[in-house]
């Protein structure tokens, strides 16, 4: 008894537990045999005897068994290495047991213990990580991800301890597994092959007498599951996965799809086993179609995104599906096909005939694209995780091209009624992955894609030969959609081509295509995503015009987007909450779903800088022209720029510029004062220009534009003070050639902006002096205009208030009415003594003299 209860060392704990389990089984079997052979009276007496001496008998047998085991163990000497490995196995066994009962508090503590044990094992293993440890952390990560997915799909409240444990494991395992990422990938690619070497190399010495334990039984069941396709259900009933039962299991899974409390992860495991059992192409295609759909069902909600692991598995299975479909000629996956109803037998597929399976390859590739986009929307773009996730776009683009090749093959087959719409959709998806990228990036993407596709496959729409010419590729895709589609797809294809042309500095082609499309007239009738694409194309055309030095065209294109101060919303690059706007949670959720991934964004700071610079080059000469000619009607080119300029002028103290706006405002102030060099220095010192290609060329263009606009501003400002002005003087002041100065002055004269004549003989400008108003007269005219506007506004207000009593006024005649029977005062010439009445009434609504302003004018 004392020997049974003495504490054993850590190396013998697991073996003693196994012996205890086996002895209990042997003892129960002996007791059952005795009870069957003896009579009832003997049974009662034996039971009483056992009740008295059961414990001592058990301890005696246990001690005898341990003595025999000790005799056998005498020859076995365990090293420190073996003891450490046994400790590692014990810790892993505790983690696996805790996983079965979902006890994450235990898993968290044991995982820390596991990581404390591993450095010594790596050191004694010549720097190699034990494969048993790799298996444990890889499986733990998979279980952790599955638990999180279950919580998202069907949330069940976990207690606080379990929740803390799960969060702790989630944080530590990601950081920990990065150090062993290569080994984990090798393990997941081939689990059996990876662990087989470990078993051979690191097999521990075992005792001569091998006893079967409960753990051995579970391992045997697992082995049978892998080799004999046997699985034990919850009730202990064996589930057989055979090639003949595949269709029945698929039918069961499809019928359970969409039901409440359906364990989709379990369905996925079942289908993965069915895929391994499948023996022909038909079975594999059916299993893969259902398996991919079930993976997408894991994130059926709109607020969640597909995990990277599940997405990669779905993409790999989709590639496998395409490989099978490309290799077989008898089976096709096509929409609107009739489903095979008989689950007892396979359909008869004769050589030369085509068997149709209902499904949609295009829908799968669209869903893969949408899930990747949704995942990128929820990742911080300034982290390495975003860049890592973005690398999956290469595999997705390859799947899109392969799907395009397959759908083309279906379309070419005259026996199949393949709709043109599916082909248009997949071509559009390919175009949407290309149009916003520079040519160099697209060339690399196309090259890697065609390397991954088998050499025997080629596209009729976009052959391999044009993959090196990005412009031809985009032109071919857009032309195909122009000819074979209509509605939204056609409009989106045109906008994609406009964007691509503008991105590659082909302004006039992009502008002509945008004008010929007439989309600016009907864009409000399209969906929101197409309107966003229209805004992006419009902005890109404006940036292209700016790079070409066309300031007016650039400002005109950017005015609609940048003038509203809602660039983020209009370009789907973020939510810009207005001060007084109230948005419902549903609308906010929809807005967030429309957001573009970060790598598709247009730099908003660069956009604002271009817009304000163009507005400065147009507004400053206009303000100078209005100041010198008060008769000209005041027109505003950019209200946003005017507000910023007025705010800057109201500042009492202005320090050195700190951001883009400050630089532009300081440059505007210098340009208005005639200091064009200072203005050019402010503009060229903006660091955002470095983000544009050929930044030095753009700075030179801006300096030339500032020189020219500085000349125009100077002429508008100081024309009243000159009779004649030498062109050579102007040329030296603004460092421009005399030919350029003459051209600018001639243009101003021809547009009637400058009242002057150009004396080409003497190279001088002769200004014409007209009747000029003094500053006091100009202010008086301005006050008169404002007073007239105020009077008219008061007249309209009074007319609205007295509209209901008009008949009473008419009955009163001239006694207090507005104009008596003669009508409304001076407008109709009435003679009543009412307001504005009498013979001296002023025409045109100027007779109202009420209020303080009226008395001031009357006086």
**Which band does the percent of strand residues land in?**
under 5%
Tally of individual domains? 6
Q: Biggest sheet, open or closed, and with what strands and sense?
A: 3 strands, antiparallel
pLDDT < 50 stretches? 1-63, 65-76, 198-230, 233-238, 813-859
Shape: elongated
**Helical segment tally?**
37
Structural class: mainly alpha
- Give helix % range: 55-70%
Pfam families: eIF-3c_N, EIF3CL_C, PCI
Biased composition (Gly residues): 813-853
Keywords: Cytoplasm, Initiation factor, Protein biosynthesis
Family: Belongs to the eIF-3 subunit C family.
Notes on the protein architecture:
The chain has 859 residues and is mostly helical. Helix content is 64%, strand content 3%. It has 37 helices and 7 strands. The strands form 3 sheets. It has a 3-stranded antiparallel beta sheet. A two-stranded antiparallel ribbon has the order 1-2. Strands 3-4 form a two-stranded parallel sheet. A hairpin with a 4-residue loop joins strand 6 and strand 7. The longest helix is centred in the N-terminal third of the chain and has 34 residues, at 40-73. Belongs to the eIF-3 subunit C family. Residues 598-772 form the PCI domain. Component of the eukaryotic translation initiation factor 3 (eIF-3) complex. GO terms for molecular function: RNA binding; translation initiation factor activity; translation initiation factor binding.
């Amino acid at each position: 008894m004392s020997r049974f209860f003495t504490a054993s060392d850590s190396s013998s704990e697991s073996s003693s537990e196994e012996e205890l389990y086996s002895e209990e089984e042997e003892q129960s079997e002996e007791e059952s045999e005795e009870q069957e052979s003896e009579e009832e009276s003997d049974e009662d007496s034996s039971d009483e005897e056992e009740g008295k001496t059961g414990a001592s008998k058990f301890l005696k047998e246990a001690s005898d068994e341990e003595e025999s085991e000790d005799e056998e163990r005498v020859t076995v000497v365990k090293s420190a290495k073996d003891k450490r490995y046994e400790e590692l196995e014990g810790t892993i066994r505790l983690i696996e047991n805790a996983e079965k009962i979902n006890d994450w508090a235990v898993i968290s503590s044991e995982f820390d213990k596991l990581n404390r044990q591993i450095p010594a094992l790596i050191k004694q293993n010549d720097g190699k990580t034990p494969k048993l440890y790799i298996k444990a952390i890889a499986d733990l990560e998979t279980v952790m991800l599955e638990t999180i997915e279950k919580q998202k799909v069907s949330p069940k409240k976990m207690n606080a301890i379990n929740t803390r444990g799960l969060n702790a494991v989630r944080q530590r395992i990601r950081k920990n597994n990065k150090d062993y990422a290569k080994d984990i990938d090798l393990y997941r690619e081939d689990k059996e092959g990876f662990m087989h070497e470990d078993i051979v190399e690191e097999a521990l010495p075992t005792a001569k007498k091998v006893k079967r334990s409960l753990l051995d039984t579970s391992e045997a069941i697992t082995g049978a599951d892998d080799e004999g396709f046997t699985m034990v259900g919850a009730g202990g009933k064996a589930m057989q996965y055979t090639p003949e039962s595949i269709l029945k299991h698929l039918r069961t899974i499809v019928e359970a799809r969409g039901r409440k409390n359906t364990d989709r992860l379990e369905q996925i495991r079942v289908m993965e086993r069915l895929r391994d059992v499948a023996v022909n192409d038909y079975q594999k295609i059916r299993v893969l179609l259902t398996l991919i759909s079930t993976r997408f069902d894991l994130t059926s909600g709109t607020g969640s995104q597909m995990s990277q692991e599940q997405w990669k598995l779905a993409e790999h299975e989709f590639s496998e599906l395409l490989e099978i479909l490309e290799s077989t000629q008898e089976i096709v996956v096509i929409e609107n096909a009739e489903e095979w109803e008989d689950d007892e037998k396979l359909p008869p597929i004769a050589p030369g005939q085509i068997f149709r399976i209902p499904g949609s390859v295009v829908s799968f590739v669209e869903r893969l694209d949408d899930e990747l986009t949704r995942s990128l929307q929820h990742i911080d773009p300034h982290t390495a995780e975003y860049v890592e996730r973005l690398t999956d776009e290469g595999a997705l683009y390859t799947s899109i091209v392969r799907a395009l090749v397959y759908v083309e093959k279906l379309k070419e087959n005259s026996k199949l009624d393949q709709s043109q719409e599916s082909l248009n959709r997949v071509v559009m998806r390919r175009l949407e992955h290309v149009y916003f990228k520079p040519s160099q990036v697209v060339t690399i993407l196309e090259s890697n894609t065609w390397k991954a596709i088998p050499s025997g496959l080629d596209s009729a729409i976009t052959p391999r030969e044009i993959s090196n010419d990005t412009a031809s590729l985009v032109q071919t895709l857009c032309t195909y959609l122009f000819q074979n589609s209509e509605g939204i797809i056609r409009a989106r294809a045109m906008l994609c081509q406009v964007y691509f042309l503008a991105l590659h500095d082909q302004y006039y082609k992009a502008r002509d295509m945008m004008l010929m499309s007439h989309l600016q007239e009907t864009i409000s009738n399209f969906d929101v995503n197409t309107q966003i694409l229209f805004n992006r194309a419009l902005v890109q055309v404006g940036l292209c015009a700016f790079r070409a030095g066309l300031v007016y065209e650039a400002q005109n294109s950017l005015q609609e987007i940048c003038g509203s101060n809602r660039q983020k919303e209009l370009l789907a690059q973020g939510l810009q909450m207005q001060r007084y706007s109230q948005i419902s949670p549903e609308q906010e959720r929809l807005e967030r779903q429309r957001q573009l991934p970060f790598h598709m964004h247009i730099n908003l700071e660069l956009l604002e800088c271009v817009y304000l610079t163009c507005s400065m080059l147009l507004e400053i000469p206009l303000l100078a022209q209005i100041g010198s000619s008060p008769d000209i009607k005041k027109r505003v080119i950019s209200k946003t720029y005017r507000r910023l300029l007025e705010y800057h002028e109201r500042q009492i103290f202005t320090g050195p510029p700190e951001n883009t706006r400050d630089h532009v405002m300081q440059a505007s102030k210098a340009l208005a004062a005639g200091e064009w060099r200072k203005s050019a220095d402010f503009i060229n010192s903006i660091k955002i220009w470095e983000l544009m290609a050929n930044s030095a060329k753009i700075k030179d263009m801006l300096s030339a534009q500032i020189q020219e606009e500085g000349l125009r501003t100077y002429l508008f400002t100081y024309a009243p003070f000159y009779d004649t002005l030498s062109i050579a003087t102007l040329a030296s002041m603004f460092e421009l050639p005399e030919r350029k100065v003459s051209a600018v002055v001639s243009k101003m004269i021809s547009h009637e902006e400058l009242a002057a004549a150009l004396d080409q003989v003497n190279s001088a400008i002769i200004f014409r002096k007209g009747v000029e108003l003094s500053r006091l007269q100009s202010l008086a005219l301005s006050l008169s205009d404002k007073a007239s506007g105020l009077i008219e506004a008061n007249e309209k207000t009074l007319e609205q208030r007295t509209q209901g009593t008009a008949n009473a006024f008419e009955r009163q005649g001239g006694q207090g009415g507005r104009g008596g029977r003669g009508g409304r005062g001076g407008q109709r010439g009435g003679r009543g003594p009412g307001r504005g009445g009498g013979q001296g009434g002023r025409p045109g609504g100027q007779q109202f003299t009420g209020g303080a302003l009226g008395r001031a004018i009357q006086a």
